[in-house]
Amino acid sequence: MDSQHYFSAAPSGPDKRRPLRVPIAGQERDLVTSGGIFSPDGIDKGTAILLSEVPPVTGSTLLDIGSGWGPLALTMAVQAPHARVIAIDVNERSLELTRENARRLELGNVAAMLPDDVNPDIAFDTIWSNPPIRIGKEALHELLLRWLPRLAPGGSAWLVVQKNLGADSLQRWLAAQLPPDYEVDRPTTSKSFRILRVERTAPENARKA
């Protein structure tokens, strides 16, 4: 599929729903998918690696950047049933699928919405993302600088990026661009993917420093 297709607000292809059986939070789940979205046939390799490497989510307000049909948001919601999970995407079909899949799993704590519909005053304790690298460097940088500065003090973001798509340069760029109370590192590498972690220092740690 043309990569721009699933970056559009309204995919041009038919919205033909079909069943999707995938593991979510360690259990096989029956969900639905459709064309015109990212990785419609299952959990892509990068997202699977992210899910295998990140610690369980913590906090009460969580964010999935680029929801697709919902694998990250659904996992967050299962792991933290009392937290609020916000899943954002520019693709309306992706948001509809995330909502439907959350209903199928009886997860009332998932809110799937367009980026501009998120309350600007909300800060996030945990952010997970397989960011859309192929939208181009400028758009990617704009996306990350829109959301990563909204980490709550003590919060963390986890990103998965392919090494050959600029993971190392992205890590250096984030470290240079984010405020001084942010730390950027690479906890692990799996196959051709880097896991990048962005942490915002808690106030008590900042005072000690």
TrEMBL record:
Signal peptide: none annotated. It comes from the Bacteria. CDD domains: AdoMet_MTases. Residues 30-170 form the Methyltransferase small domain. Pfam families: MTS (PF05175). GO terms for molecular function: methyltransferase activity. One of its GO terms (biological process) is methylation. The keyword Methyltransferase applies. This is Methyltransferase.
